[in-house]
């Protein structure tokens, strides 16, 4: 039988010396930029949820123009909402 040299990864697997996996952070802050704001940290949520914002608030933030979308939202109380 021939001997095959192992790299660090293979020996770590065989010797069970892999690093411990970190847990899911769930939520974290990420830097963002808005016109007229010096400092901004946005809360990012890795869950399967979405956040709704009134159009007037979006326009007040001077963000890019929105594009129409077609979707149906099923809310927490199980009611269904469709955009007009």
Question: Could you explain the architecture of this structure?
Answer:
It is built from 2 helices and 4 strands; from the N terminus they run αββαββ. The mean pLDDT is 76. It has helices at 8-14, 55-60, and strands at 27-31, 41-45, 73-74, 80-81. With 84 residues, it is an alpha+beta fold. The chain has a domain at 22-62.
Name the structural class.
alpha+beta
Mean pLDDT: 76
Major sheet: size, sense and barrel closure?
Answer: 2 strands, antiparallel
Quick one: overall form?
Answer: elongated
Determine the fraction of residues in helical runs and give it as a percent range: 10-25%
> In DSSP terms, counting alpha (H) and pi (I) runs of 4 or more, how many helices?
2
Could you give the order of the helices and strands?
A: HEEHEE
Estimated share of beta-strand residues: 15-25%
Give the radius of gyration.
24 Å
- CA-to-CA gap between the ends? 72 Å
Q: In total, how many beta strands? A: 4
Characteristics:
two-stranded antiparallel ribbon, single chain, alpha+beta, 84 residues, 2 helices
What's the SSE blueprint?
Layout: H1 8-14, E1 27-31, E2 41-45, H2 55-60, E3 73-74, E4 80-81
Antiparallel strand pairs: 1-2, 3-4
What can be said about this structure in brief?
Keywords: Nucleotidyltransferase, RNA-directed DNA polymerase, Transferase. The protein is an alpha+beta fold and 84 residues long.
């Amino acid at each position: 039988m021939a001997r095959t040299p192992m790299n660090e990864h293979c020996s770590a697997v065989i010797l069970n010396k892999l690093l411990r996996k970190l847990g899911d952070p769930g939520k974290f802050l990420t830097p963002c930029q808005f016109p007229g704001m010096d400092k901004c940290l946005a809360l990012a949520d890795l869950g399967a949820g979405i956040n709704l914002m009134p159009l007037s608030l979006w326009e007040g933030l001077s963000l890019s123009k929105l594009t129409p979308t077609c979707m149906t939202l099923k809310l927490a109380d199980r009611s269904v909402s469709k955009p007009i």
